[in-house]
Amino acid sequence: MHAGTDRSQDSPRGPGRTGREDHPVPALPTDRADRSDRADRIGRIERLTDPAAIRDRIEELAFHAREDILTLVPHTELSAAYLAWARPLALRILRRGVAFRTVMLCETLEDPPTAAYLREIERHGARVRLIPHATERLLACDSRAVALPLGGGPTVEHGALFTEEPAIVASVRALFERAWERATPLTPAPTPTENARLILAAMCSGAKDETAARGIGVSVRTYRRRIAHLMEHLNAGSRAQAALLARDRGWI
């Protein structure tokens, strides 16, 4: 998602794209069977230097995402060209039910177009947090693939690396989670009523609706209506997503 360029990095898509380089990680000089096994386990590292090719690769990862997409973007604003590309992509991801979490700098709220974009995707189910300082830039797609700027900086002006190597994917996701824990929600969550907490706890208990409703002293119809209301309030498409969002906000 946010592995596009900032305002200083815009470049038009041209018909003649170059910059795609595949780099198998070299095996240690052992026998042929060991080299083959090592290549299978380590996988490939893909190096892209053309911005259009980078965006194409991100779109491909987003299309195949099934669980979540995580992004950390240490920019104070996003360019109009980038927003025009990122907005429909983010909304398609969210419509498919793929979880989307992003961490941006607090200063992004000072740029109206960027702030509007973040609030829009949050209304559609994205979980957005802000952090005062960050230098890392990353994108993770499921527990399957990650993208990092070439050279380790916060921008992709020199290109990006894509890899599915499990150890790198796990490390990048852990880096994101550390930033996520330090960040604060874009929109502070309101404090739920005690009744709402009871409904959520009952919903998460795994009990049948009839049993859960009887346990908190309401009818099944009332119980289901309140769950529907909470799901709407949390902008959740399912009970499972509502439970996840409620836990993220500290409601249960």
Distance between the termini: 30 Å
Order of helices and strands: EHEHEHEHEEEEHEHHHH
Which overall shape is indicated by the principal axes computed on the Cα atoms?
elongated
User: How many strands, which pairing sense, and closed or not: the largest β-sheet?
Assistant: 9 strands, mixed
Calculate the mean pLDDT score and round it: 82
What is the share of helical residues?
A: 40-55%
How large a portion of the residues is in β-strands, by DSSP E? 15-25%
| Gyration radius, in Å | 21 Å
Per DSSP E runs of 2 or more residues, the count of β-strands stands at: 9
Strand order of the largest sheet: 1-2-8-7-6-3-4-5-9
Give a short overview.
The protein has 252 residues and is α+β, with helices and mostly antiparallel strands.
Model description:
- The protein is α+β, with helices and mostly antiparallel strands and 252 residues long.
- The protein is 45% helix and 17% strand.
- A 9-stranded mixed sheet has the order 1-2-8-7-6-3-4-5-9, sandwiched between helices.
- Residues 3-18 and 23-42 have low confidence and may be disordered.
Spell out the key features of this protein.
single chain, 252 residues, alpha+beta, nine-stranded mixed β-sheet, 45% helix, elongated
Would you spell out the secondary-structure blueprint of this structure?
Layout (H helix, E strand, L loop, with lengths): L19 E5 L7 H11 L1 E5 L2 H14 L3 E6 L6 H16 L3 E7 L6 H12 L3 E5 L6 E4 L3 E5 L10 E4 L2 H17 L1 E2 L8 H11 L4 H8 L3 H15 L4 H10 L4
Parallel strand pairs: 3-4, 4-5
Antiparallel strand pairs: 1-2, 2-8, 3-6, 5-9, 6-7, 7-8
Helix pairs in contact: 3-4, 6-7, 6-8, 7-8, 8-9
